[in-house]
Amino acid sequence: MTNVNISNFRENLYQYVRNTVKHNDVININTKDGNAVVLSEEDYNGLIETLYLNGSKKTIEDIKEAENTPQNEKISLDEIDW
User: Fold this and answer.
1) Is 76 a residue whose pLDDT tops 90?
2) Partners of 28 in the beta sheet?
C-alpha cells in the first residue's frame, strides 16, 4: 500500500493510477478531512465478490464441505462438464 498526501497524489495522478492498475498497488490518500483509498477495478471486483460469497451461508457451508473432502474423493477440473 502506498501512502500519499492529496497534493502529491494530484501532482502525480497518472503515475499513481497507472501503478494501481498495472501492479495492483493500493493508494491511501491522506487529507486533512480524512483518507481515501484507490484500488484497481480488478481488486475492487474481487473484494465485492468475496463479500457476496461470504454473505451466503450456503456458499460458506459448501466451501467448508469441499475443504473437508478427502483428496482421493475430489475430481479434477478436467472432469467437470462446464
Assistant:
1) no
2) 3, 37
Residue with cell 463479500: 51
pLDDT digits (tens, 9 = 90+) for 6-35: 999 999 999 999 999 999 999 999 999 999
Sequence-separated contacts (24+) of 46-54 with Cβ below 8 Å: none
Report d(CA 60, CA 52) in Å as an integer: 11
Query: 74 pLDDT band (50/70/90 cuts)?
Result: confident
Contact yes or no for 42/22 (Cβ under 8 A): no
User: Strand locations in the chain, DSSP E?
Assistant: 2-5, 27-31, 34-38
Cβ atoms of 9 and 31 within 8 Å: the answer is no
Yes or no: say if 38 and 26 are a contact pair by the CB < 8 Å rule. Answer: yes
Count CB neighbours of 20 within 10 A: 19
